[in-house]
Amino acid sequence: MQLTSFLTVISALALTSAAPAPAPEPVSPAELDPRIPLMGAFHISTQAACPLVAPELYQLALPLGPDDTSCRRFYNNMTYAAISVDFWNPKCLLTLYNTLTCSDPGIVSGTGGCWWPDGGIKAYKATCPYRDW
Known about the structure:
The longest helix has 16 residues, at about 1-15. The protein starts with a helix and ends in a 6-residue tail after the last strand. By secondary structure, it is an alpha+beta fold. It has one helix spanning about 1-15, and strands at about 40-45, 55-60, 70-75, 80-90, 95, 105-110, 115, 125. The protein has one helix and eight strands. About 20% of the residues are buried. The strands form two sheets. It has a four-stranded antiparallel beta sheet with strand order 2-1-4-7, with no helix packed on it.
């Protein structure tokens, strides 16, 4: 009887410790710094899975003007495997690239959702072609 109870407790501990980390709660524009005009916010992860595992939060300010189409890299040229868009200004576009130079065709994100593109995410462009400047 004691052996059975012991094995039951050990099994329960193994199951609870093997459970994946909970998905991050999406952020809303109201939760962020109101002094910065934001284009959007998203979580990214080095692991290809949705919901994201060990995500990092990125917040993007609006570009300086309609001609700001620069290719941006992540810190230390990091490659991320998955992205989950929390919110995005519908007048702006987030384009994700598999190359550090934004030379591939790119993938335009929607205004929300989670996915992991083949080849990972190495760079991005954040533009607002539909915004009134």
